[in-house]
Amino acid sequence: MDPIERMPATIEQDMAEQAHNQRQGDVSVFSWPECGGALGQVAETGLVRFRCHLGHPYQGEILLAERTETLEAALWTAVRIFREKSVLGRQLAALERSKGNDAAADRFQEQADQAHQSGSLIIRQVLNVDPGAAGPQGAESVPDSTPSRRTTAAGRGDRT
To answer: What residue segments make up the domains of the chain, in order of their start?
Structure first.
């Protein structure tokens, strides 16, 4: 079998091994939050710890917390972009409608509606947030979504 065709199964196996703590002493399936480089899992009994290729240590709980913050920030970014796409689609639809180009207006309106639905879905189902009062043209108000970064005094030091 072609190695490229085997890759999805290999990745699934690596993920399953990582989930069962079977990659101690090996490169993990996780990346270093600061640079995106691979993290190696430290071979220790009773602890889940990782080190980047530069030697920076990460405790499993800290890595999980940082992953949670990164994921939430990415989801809020997606919500913001969907909202912007929805508003822009509505603006373009209105412009095309004023020109009498109903077909183009309908396409833009459909894109705006899909973007609005996608952003709302992320807010309600994934982020578990009440969208609150509707903003202009039905767009949800989005709270400040910048997660606080927890760093050491050195900014990047030991996160164990």
So the answer is: 3-55, 66-138
Q: Tens of pLDDT along 38-68?
A: 888 888 778 888 888 777 888 989 989 999 9
Say which residues have a Cβ less than 8 Å from residue 75's Cβ, sequence separation at least 6: 122, 126, 127
Burial degree of 6 (CB within 10 A; 0-12, 13-18, 19+): exposed
The token duo for 24 is 């101690």
Report the 10 Å Cβ neighbour count for 137: 12
Rounded distance between C-alpha atoms, residue 115 and residue 120, angstroms: 8
Q: What is the DSSP string of 38-77?
A: EEEEP--SS--EEEETT--EEEHHHHHHHHHHHHHHHHHH
Cα separations in angstroms, 40 against 16, 45, 57, 128: 16, 15, 10, 33
